[in-house]
Amino acid sequence: MIDQSFQRLWSNERVLNLMEQILGPEVAGHPVWNLRTKTPRSEAVNIPWHQDSAYMSNESYDHMIASAWIPFLDATPENGTLQ
Predict the structure, then answer these.
(1) Is the pLDDT of residue 1 over 60?
(2) Pick from 42, 32, 39, 40: which is nearest to 67 by CA?
C-alpha cells in the first residue's frame, strides 16, 4: 500500500499539468512505484548513470513516458544533486 502523502504527490495538479505539457492530455500512471530515498553522503543508495528504458518491456515503446526526480529538500552539491 502506498502512503497517502505519495498518493497526493502522484495526483498533484501541478505535477499532472507539467506531465500534460510533455505527454499530451492523456496521462496515466504506471502501477509500479520506484521510490528511492537518498540521504546525504550515503554511498548505499547512489544510482549510477542509467537509462530507464533498460528496465521497461518492449510494449513500453508504444507510449510516451516521463520520469521525474522530485527532491524533498534543497538540492545542493553537498547533499547530492543530479549531474
Answers:
(1) no
(2) 32
